[in-house]
Amino acid sequence: MxxxxxxxxxxQVARAKQKVxxxxxxxxxxxxxxxxxxxxxxxxxxxxxxxANYSGPSSRSQGSQASDTRSKGDS
Length: 75
What we know:
single chain; 75 residues; mainly alpha; flat
């Protein structure tokens, strides 16, 4: 590397180190943490799972359709 590249790299590394923000430890009591989780929970509660917003069947349950891969002209 040339001297200019070395200097620029050092400056970039120094700036990046200044921007790093270390996370602070959570000093709340377990009761406070539990209350915060309850307060941030959805008002209607959870639905029947992670895919509750989708009305159709999941793509994994359609295995019989995926096994027939012949095109229309091959029959």
